[in-house]
Amino acid sequence: MENRLSLIKDIQNIPWFHELTPIQIDRLADISMIHTLQPEEVLFQEGDRVENLYIILSGEVLFENYIPTMGNHAVSHAESLDVIGWSCLTPIVRQRTATVKALKLARLVSIKGDDLIKLCEEDSDLGYIIMRRVANIVATQFLSTRLHLYEIIRSSTHSLTQPGPF
Fold it and tell me: What's residue 1's pLDDT?
């Protein structure tokens, strides 16, 4: 019982859920659990099936992508209150697009994706709040990725225009 009360308190402290009613928070707690990652522990691998949405309560994680002939490449990181695995709420993307591992001891709320979809469908107010938050995350990540690509293009173009040793 104490673990459930602690989980409910953790969920209530996440700004994402401040608009939820006590009943909605209780229903969310029914499909959630706390997950702890040790430093260097992998949460999931690129290509894994998407099953859970995670919200970082504390700690920091690293996102890596595998690049053929180059190995794993760090692409970003996430920290307290960041959301990981939002694609479990989308019908098309059903596999992880990166490997995620802990940089430091991390504590996360893990929410079962399929159960969260059902909960959102049953409670349209809850569904609207969750999907509005997910839309903001997707838009932010799209902008971040776009800026990162611009930087890569600028850097590669800059190196091509630099005079060579000849």
Answer: 61
pTM, two decimal places: 0.84
- Lookup result for tokens 């590669």: 156
Q: Which of 58-67, 75-84, 86-95, 112-121 holds the top average pLDDT? A: 112-121
**Cα gap 83→80, rounded to integer Å:** 9
What Rg do the C-alpha atoms of the chain give, in angstroms?
A: 19
**120-138 pLDDT tens trace:** 999 999 999 999 998 998 8
Q: What confidence score (pLDDT) does residue 42 get?
A: 95
Pair 51, 20: CB distance under 8 Å? no
Sheet with 106-112, strands from edge to edge, namely 32-37, 106-112, 52-58, 83-84
Instruction: Express the helix, strand and coil content of the chain in percent, nearest 5 each.
Output: 45, 30, 25
Please give the order of strands across the beta sheet that includes 42-44: 42-44, 99-102, 60-67, 71-79
CATH 3.30.930.10 fits 2-161, yes or no: no
Q: What angle do CA 134, 137, 138 make, to 5 degrees?
A: 85
